[in-house]
Amino acid sequence: MNATRERWGSPLGFILATTGFSVGLGNIWRFPYLAGENGGGAFLLIYILLAVLIGIPLFTAEISLGRRAQATPLAGMRKLAGRSPFRAIAWLGAGAAFLIMSYYQLIMGWIAAYFIRALRGGFGAGSVQAAAESFAAFTSRPGEVLAYSIPVMLLTGLIIARGLRRGVERAARLLIPLLFFFLVGLAIVSLQFEGAWEGVRWYLAPDFSAIGPGTWLAALGQAFYSIGVGMMGAFVFGSYLHPRHSDIPGSAASIVACDTIAAILAGFVMFPALFAFNMEPDQGAGLLFVTMAGLFGRLPAGDVAAAFFFFFVFIAGLTSGLALIEALTASAMDSLGWSRRRSLWVVLALVVLAGVPLALGAGPWAALQVGGRGLFELADYVSGNIFLTVGGLAISLYVAVAWGFERFRAETNQGAGRFRITAAWGPVMRFVVPVAVALVVLAGLGLLS
To answer: How many CB atoms neighbour CB 261 within 10 A?
Structure first.
């Protein structure tokens, strides 16, 4: 055991911090717009199925890998996998985390801007079209977007600079209960509107005609994105656990359950209100900033409601951003031998620089596209639908082939409570997870007819 390695202050601290990593903009921003584009209830049903069948086993395996390695992914997989191709797990995770943060910071800037706009009384009566034009005009000004996103990154850095216990863990203890308080409260308010239950019926009733290969890939990518499979956070947070006295299976199941509940609740915040005001749910990535902004313009005291809403969304984004930057920072510390502060500020500088072309991609570089996608959309697609899913496939194959199920089971059950890895997990980890992930990836990429 590495006696100098930072440790969680308590099991609850680990669960809250890792829940904060999982529950973020993937639940509040990405899940509702993907559900809106993929038939509502049909997408929700597939998402829950994949979260339970694939998300929990892979998230458990990734945490267990981190605890076993007692190091971050780049150093840890070098230790565990040697020169085998499974070392790619670490690089896929690092690439996913970096790509996600390159555009995640911009979304955080959008959220901060809309929160300040609400405080200034900027959500007057207006149409969805006017809200869309306002959002497009704002995002087309990269300097203004970066002026909001860079302070958010500095705030993230100041929290992480305090260390694991005094920074990440202490922030999670404050922010996660507050996050769920806001989420439940906003869902209750949304359900009070006249006509809201039409949105509930659309959200919960599966439209199986909307399901195609792309739906499965989107749902799997969203499960990985939201839960946090394949982006290093679970590996890094697992590496801070005591190697023998930590309950990985129970903690992983609790975290995935909280994450899934948060995503479902986000739908109850969004869709009932949208249907009550005759607004379309399939607005894509702009759902949070176009349709919801148009909604606030129609509500009595809409600026107050908008301020509460965007403050809540900001908290959700901050908790995940903390985990991703911590993962990248810790990896630099382990791999390069740098101090926490040096690693942190180098990582932040690189992430901010990577965000500049993505910000320009909505403005002066809007005509620049790759495969029919703008730079921002390309970063989201590659990280969520390729890096995370391929990384998840690599983790499942490592458990099935290199580590071996029985050794994985024995390692993961060290310190476990009532919920343990049983022999019934064997076929799931050996066959169901790798085959399902491989088929969904291939079908979604159009490589299977």
So the answer is: 15
**Cα separation of 383 and 393, whole Å?**
14
Structure-token match 């509040």, residue found: 28
d(CA 240, CA 243): 9
Does the pLDDT of residue 1 top 70, yes or no?
no
Give the C-alpha separation, 436 to 108, whole Å: 33
Spatial CB neighbours of 401, under 8 Å, sequence gap ≥ 6: none
pLDDT band for position 449 (50/70/90)? low
The domain made up of 11-444 has a fold known as: Amino acid/polyamine transporter I (1.20.1740)
- Token pair 């792309």 in the structure block, residue: 214
CB 299 within 8 A of CB 39: no
Summarize pLDDT for 293-352 with one digit per residue, the tens: 777 777 777 788 888 888 888 888 888 888 899 889 988 988 888 998 999 999 999 999
CA distance 90 to 235: 9
Nearest partner of 93 among 343, 395, 356, 310, judged by Cα: 395
